[in-house]
Structures are given as structure tokens and as C-alpha cells.
Amino acid sequence: MSNKPLEGIKIIDFTHVQAGPACTQMLAWFGADVIKVERPGSGDVTRNQLRDIPDADALYFTMLNSNKRSLTLDTKKAEGKEVLTRLIKESDVLVENFGPGALDRMGFSWENIKALNPKMIVASVKGFSDGHHYDDLKVYENVAQCAGGAASTTGFWDGPPTISAAALGDSNTGMHLAIGILTAIIGRQQTGKGQKVAVSMQDSVLNLCRVKLRDQQRLDRVGYLEEYPQYPHGTFSDVVPRGGNAGGGGQPGWVLKCKGWETDPNAYIYFTIQGHAWAPICRAIGKEQWIDDPDYNTAEARQPHIFDIFGKIEEWLADKTKYEAVDILRKFDIPCAPVLTMKELANDESLRKSGSIVEVDHKVRGKYLTVGSPIKFSDLKPEIKASPLLGEHTADVLAELGYSREQVAQMQESGAV
Ligand code: COA
């Protein structure tokens, strides 16, 4: 039987755009009752951003807000504040990712919330952590990637700092926040008290750039980085350079061309030269003579001519598609994968089967694809449901809070909900 471990946890989801919504969406999949609080009339800006169907919530919204309920509330109006106050008294967690100080200006500082409900966990995403010299800045994804060290270390050495397509600043921060919230929930079981949990986008990016801080210290000490393409023929400055498609660990790797690369921009595989797999690599690509050749048989010997080696592997790949190449290399236990497009991923049967990509039916837009839970449990199979329409659950939530129909109608009239 599938149980939902977060059932019974009530979350006020005061989040918008991507970082906060990614966090609360995941908690909703695992059973929490997530009430998304949105401004009447407009709601989360992503409902309208990059729409592909004129009157339907944009995919940007639907893919980050599944399994939630939507409550419209103007928290700058007195009645709105009163509703939020009641909600705080009955909830376990409040998650927000407003600009710095917005919650305080609304009258719901951490101290005020704690006074209303000492068990409350208040979880926030900001661009920079409290007390940082940039803590007054509003921040979006790419800003965080630049501030957290990802941009200066991504891309090619002869190009500008580069942004990753993966949401290192947004969804990644949301995942960090989810870990923080769950930790605070367990902490509360021990102490009976809530607490404030804060995650900054800069810190979350930096956490994923840990190996680049490793490299900075190695560079400071020895003046070069032996696994970077700049070694041994190029030069190093005193900062970690952009390493193109080099592997970040001790295993050299590169994106290599396969059959059809001249016309297909994604006819590539990622190929890794794992140290102990050198002999299988040589056998796989028909270069047995390299196995014991002192110019090839150690990582140190290979590095000065690593790109010639990659070139020879590309010659072997020239008559193989990326799929054929991986099917051969997997038999030799070589870590590799085809470079997959979003179209290929959307149609990948294995991802559909595992629930990593799911089709959801939405009241207005019909069927659409979304990314399901990347976390798999033996006793929980998250069921991904459609995102709510703006204010779809306002009446239900207000009734649960004890408001009469007349009071709800009055608040609708005044624009408070
Ligand atoms: N009722 C009434 N007012 C509401 C409301 C509601 N339901 N929801 C939001 N508001 C108000 C806020 O109180 C705030 O008012 P104030 O600034 O006058 O006090 C106002 O809306 C604007 O909120 P803000 O979050 O600052 O929006 P923004 O569009 O100017 O900025 C971000 C957007 C994302 C840049 C900013 O929220 C931010 O930096 N967030 C933290 C980092 C982050 O999460 N970035 C995005 C990652 S996807």
C-alpha cells in the first residue's frame, strides 16, 4: 500500500516563480496539504509568462505547482491579513520567496508569526543570505549562477562566463529548502518548537560548485590543474578557469562527435576515460596496442595528448550513431551516455515507466507533460496531479478556517480574496 509520509502537514505556500514553488510542489507530492496563496486577479506571475495557449495557465506555472490548492488573498488588506493570521495558527510551515523584507512589510515578521504559532516553521528563499553585503538584492536564476561561482567556471576558456540550462539557482535552491523544512519538522518533534529556515540562492549554487572551490585551493598551492584542458600546454592565471566539457573529477572526459554530427547538433556522446578502465577502452575502440604502451597506459602519460586520444575515439565513432556507440561501450563497462535532447527525453519510454516524466490532465489546457518525482520510494508512488486554477480552492480553505458563506462573499466583494 502506498502511504504519504507528509499527510497531515499543512503548508502555507507563499511562493512564486520557480525556487519556492519547486520546493512546495515536491512536499505536496509526498502528501503535504500545500495551500498556494496568490494575489486576487493575477496570481503567480508564471501563470501568464510564456503562454503557449492564450487563456490557459502557462506550462511554467503548471509544471511547478502540481498537487497544490490555490487560495487568493490580498494580504495587504485588513481582511486578507485576518485570513492569513487564522491560517498561520492552523499550519505547520510557511514557505516564501518574496523580495527581501516583503514579509516583514506585510506585518508577518518571524517574531510575529512565532507569537501566533510557536510551532510554525518559516522557510525562506532569498538571493543572498542574511547579513551578506548584497542581502538587499532581488535575484533571479542567472543572477544566482553568476554570484555562486557557476558562471565563471562554466563554458569554454575563450568565451564569456556561461549560464547552465539547469536551474541551479532556482529549483536547486528549492530542493535545499525542502531538506531544511523536513529537518525542522523532525527538530520540532524533538523540541515542540518551530524555527526559521533560510536558504540563499548564492549558497545553493556554491554548494554545487564545491569542486571548483576545491580547484581554487589546489591552483593556489601548485599553480596548475592537471585535469583541465589547459594542462599541460596552456597557461593558468590565479583563478579557476572555464574547462569546457572536461570532467570535474579525476576522470578525463569529453563530448565526442558521432555519426551525423555535421547536421545533427546533438549527435554526440559523453565519453569518460576512467583510469582503471583503460584496457577495456582500448579493446572497445580497437586500439589494443595502447594497453601497455608507456605513452598511453597511465593518466599522466595520456594527459599531454588527451585530445589526440579523443580524436582517435571520434574516428572510431564516425560510423556509429550515439545510440550504437553507447550500446557497444556499455559492454565494456565504460561510463558514457548519448547527449539527449528534450524531445528524446519527452518520448523516453523508460522515463515514462518510472514516473520521471508524466502526462497530466489539466482542466483548461488538457494534457501536458511534466517532470515527476526524481526521488523513488519503495512505499510511495507520488501521483502527480494538475496545478490548481487561480483561486480554485478559496471557498474551501476559507470554510475550513471557519468563515461563513456570507463572510466569503463579502471578502470577494471587497477584493480581499
Ligand atoms: N497580497 C498582497 N501583496 C502581495 C501578495 C499578496 N498575495 N503577494 C505578494 N505581494 C507583494 C509583496 O508583499 C511585495 O510588496 P512590497 O514590496 O510592496 O512590500 C510585492 O508583492 C512584490 O513582491 P516581490 O517578491 O518583491 O516581487 P518582485 O516581482 O518585485 O520580485 C523576485 C520578484 C523573484 C525578484 C523577488 O521576489 C526575489 O528576489 N525573491 C527572492 C529570491 C527568489 O526567490 N528569486 C526567484 C527565484 S525563481
Automatic annotation (TrEMBL):
Reactions catalysed: formyl-CoA + oxalate = oxalyl-CoA + formate
Similarity field: Belongs to the CoA-transferase III family. Frc subfamily.
EC numbers, comma separated: 2.8.3.16
Top-rank lineage group of the source organism: Bacteria
Pathway: Metabolic intermediate degradation; oxalate degradation; CO(2) and formate from oxalate: step 1/2
Residues that bind CoA: 16-19, 39, 73-76, 97-99, 105, 138-141
GO molecular function, one term: formyl-CoA transferase activity
Record InterPro entries: CoA-transferase_III_domain, CoA-Trfase_fam_III, CoA-Trfase_III_dom3_sf, CoA-Trfase_III_dom_1_sf, Formyl_CoA_transfer
The protein's name: Formyl-CoA:oxalate CoA-transferase
Active site (record annotation): D170 (nucleophile)
Organism field: Caballeronia cordobensis (Burkholderia cordobensis)
Binding site for substrate: G249, G250, Q251
Quaternary structure and partners: Homodimer.
UniProt KW keywords: Transferase
Function: Involved in the catabolism of oxalate and in the adapatation to low pH via the induction of the oxalate-dependent acid tolerance response (ATR). Catalyzes the transfer of the CoA moiety from formyl-CoA to oxalate.
GO annotation (BP), single: oxalate catabolic process
